[in-house]
Amino acid sequence: MEIKKNQETLLRILNGHKIEFEEFDISDPGQDGPREFMRANAQAKPGQKFPLPPQIFNEDVYCGGFDEFHEAIESESLDQFLKLESQNGQS
Fold first, then answer.
1. pLDDT score, position 86
2. Which of 22, 40, 67, 70 is 20 to 30 Å from 14 by CA-CA measure?
3. In the chain, what is the straight-line distance between the N-terminal and C-terminal CA atoms, in Å?
């Protein structure tokens, strides 16, 4: 239930900020590629065998999980967290 709530929050915030993104459903058994990519490239929390969704990437670059995303929102550093260029062309 918490994963679903975090996913909904993440999507609402990205849409609210008009940030383009591609969403992958790793629960689809016919789509092993996104799940394997996430497991190979994201970081699991201590005590977890695999990282739990949502995990955020900018292309192939790992940004972080939901906790780090939430911290970026709170500290008004979402662009830096997502590794997006700012309006003036700086990272």
1. 53
2. 40
3. 35
- Whether 65 contacts 54, CB under 8 Å: yes
**What are the angstrom distances between the C-alpha of 49 and each of 7, 40, 54?**
20, 12, 15
The structure tokens listed for 23 are: 């969403």
- Amino acid 87: pLDDT: 43
pTM comes to: 0.85
Residue 89 lies in a domain: no
Express the helix, strand and coil content of the chain in percent, nearest 5 each.
40, 10, 50
Residue 76 lies in a domain: yes
Is residue 43 within 8 Å of residue 61, measured between CB atoms? Answer: no
For tokens 């679903």, name the residue.
4
- Would you place residue 32 in the very low, low, confident or very high pLDDT band (cuts 50, 70, 90)? confident
Average pLDDT, the chain: 90
